[in-house]
Amino acid sequence: MCSTSRRYARTALCQAVPSLAERERRNQIEIIDHQDWYVVTGKPDPDSTPRGWVEREERAQAA
Questions:
Q1: Exposed, middle or buried: residue 30 (CB in 10 Å: 0-12, 13-18, 19+)?
Q2: Which residue from 58, 38, 57 is spatially nearest to 47, judged by alpha carbons?
Q3: Distances (CA, A) of 61 to 11, 15, 49
Q4: pTM, whole model, 2 decimals?
Q5: Backbone angles phi, psi at 49, to 5 degrees
Q6: Are 32 and 3 in contact (CB under 8 A)?
Q7: What does the radius of gyration of the chain's CA atoms come to, in whole angstroms?
Q8: Using CA atoms, how far apart are residues 28 and 38, in angstroms rounded to an integer?
Q9: How would you class 47 by CB atoms within 10 Å of its CB: exposed for 0-12, middle for 13-18, buried for 19 or more?
């Protein structure tokens, strides 16, 4: 289920990126709740957070 902030972000981004739904389907963009983004292990991890950013960027560029 989408959080309120994810729904708000998606609604706002759709105004600037008409192809947002298609880009999401193609895994070129992913809207993630901030809690899922920064706290993967249940606590903030300064090492895994940037690594996760890079991994997601690489997947998006490969899509």
A1: exposed
A2: 38
A3: 23, 23, 19
A4: 0.62
A5: -60, -55
A6: no
A7: 13
A8: 20
A9: exposed
